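Subject: Sanity check before I submit

Could someone independently write out the structure tokens for this chain? I want to compare against mine line by line before I put it in a report. The sequence has 229 residues.
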Amino acid sequence: MSSNIIIADSSELILKGLQNIFQDNSDTTIYLANDLLILKKYISSVSDPILIIDYTSEGFSLENIVGIKYDNPKLKILAITPYTNAQTIVQAVQAGVESHLKKECSIKEIKEAYEATLKGKKFFCCDIVNQMRHEQIDVNKIAFKSLDPNPVKLSERELQIIQFIAEGYTNSQIAAIIYLSNHTINTHRKNIMKKLGVNNTAGIVMYAVKTEMVRPNQFSFKQSSENNG
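---
Independent answer below. Compare away.
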């Protein structure tokens, strides 16, 4: 069975190494992309490819995956990255990555992951399965979400207020720090929730954690009699 593979990575060493793994199959055509423009060119011109990508390498990102999958929903994606935290792996699968490996994985696992992905199945290397199990995450229950590739557009002021909210500051405390009225802060808060599609402060905090604006252990959640939703 013939197949097309696009390998995307900023490292020539990784590109050549992965190429060597798959070039034994005479029915497989391999395309190498060391930047996003070349990758998009191949995706638009190559018939039914499988994409093997390190979305953490220079010039690539998870946001690229979201956009690529949005435009090419049938594209099968195998990610091979260095150590990646569990939350990022979850986000990668939700963005459209079918299978995920670490670069430390064996050639045997890489080939097994490719074959599984080619058949439309998920594959995670043993290290990732153990990592996710430790975080009490069931990889089989993570579902792809067709996401809008256009990121939420927040102003610098809104980003500043999100950070204060995530760190536990109340409306009045934020107002005092940045010299605005309580009413203005409350208006910003409502606009932020509308843009993020959330209904309460917890939703804002979750956004701040997922985008790594703050770490969970930074939360202070100061005591206040003020109800901020």
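---
OP: Matches mine. For the report I'm noting this point. Residues 218-229 have pLDDT under 50 and may be disordered.
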